[in-house]
């Protein structure tokens, strides 16, 4: 059986799924090195829906989802120019 990896562009329609994976990835990666209060403050600031919508609408900032065997496995953010 061959595994399938794919990358797709995130759109405003994906904002809730994007918010979920951004928060989970950051908690998994940085949670043990930060206080719960500091993590909450950062996550609330960086990944609230208003902020994510602003970034998704910015032509110099792009988000992508990585799917593995049809399941969301990660995300990637690419900033260009002033983003």
UniProtKB/TrEMBL annotation:
GO BP terms in the entry: proteolysis
InterPro entries: Acyl_CoA_acyltransferase
Domain of life: Eukaryota
GO molecular function, one term: peptidase activity
Hydrolase is among the record's keywords: yes
Assigned keywords, A-Z: Hydrolase, Protease
UniProt name for this protein: Protease synthase and sporulation negative regulatory PAI 1 domain protein
Organism: Blattamonas nauphoetae
């Amino acid at each position: 059986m061959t595994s399938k990896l794919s990358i797709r562009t995130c759109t405003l329609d994906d904002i809730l799924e994007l918010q979920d994976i951004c928060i989970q990835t950051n908690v998994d990666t940085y949670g043990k090195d930060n206080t719960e209060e500091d993590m909450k403050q950062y996550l609330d600031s960086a990944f609230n829906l208003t902020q994510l919508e602003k970034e998704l609408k910015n032509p110099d900032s792009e988000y992508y989802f990585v799917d593995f065997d049809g399941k969301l496995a990660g995300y990637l953010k690419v900033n260009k120019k002033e983003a």
